[in-house]
Structures are given as structure tokens and as C-alpha cells.
Design a protein that fits this description.
Strand content: 35-45%
Number of domains: 2
Strand order of the largest sheet: 1-2-3-4-5-6-7-8
Number of strands: 8
Shape: globular
Amino acid sequence: MVQKPETAVLKVYHVLIGCVALTLVAVGGTCTAFADDDFPLTGNYTQNVPCKGDGTDPKAVQVKISAQQIISNMGVCTVLSTKHDGDTFTEHVECKLPAGPMMADISFTQRPDKTVDFVDSGGNYKAILHRCPN
């Protein structure tokens, strides 16, 4: 039996759509959207020093994290996507910095002592974040 070219293209097209759909389902399972009230890292922190939380923490060490953005002395980063694996959250962010905009991948790992390890994907900046009391 000889197929018309249109029929063969249609079959390939349907197979391609099926593969794309499976890929989207597989990838979609790894990215998570969080609301502020269910994102476990939401809160105020200090970098590399314990937080006093009494208003005397220097602005240079303060960090505010929400599901949508991260605010620090470096600038404001908008969270574009978040992946969660065990105790680690990896985020793709777009930052507005004094030197100009920048895209980056960063990760936060919750430690047993209730601090959070922060590192950018290039390993250029690392910090230990200390949660401030509410």
C-alpha cells in the first residue's frame, strides 16, 4: 500500500506532538510554583551573621526571600522558576543589579541547624543565611 505524502506527514506530526506532550509532563513535574505561605524559605534572613531581629541588623546583611523575589543589598531578583529536590531549592532568577540586569541560577539548601546555604551556580558567591525571628 502506498501512502500519500500528506498522510505520512500527519502521522509524523502526531508522533511529534505526543513526544512533546510527554516531555512537557516530565519537565513540568520538576518545576514547582509556590505561594508565599507554602514556600518554606519565605522570610527575613541575614547573611553570614546570626540575625538579631531587633532592627539593629545592618542593611548590608539583610535578605528577604519570598516565592516571587529575593531582595538584598545586591538588588532585587525575580524568581522565574523553582525546582525542589530534597532540602535544596534551585531557582532561575532575573536580577536588577546596580551594574545592570543579570540572569542566574542559584540554590538554597536547608541545613539541620536551621540555617540555609546559598550559592550561585558559578560558585562565585556563597553565604550562610540565618533566619530572623518573626
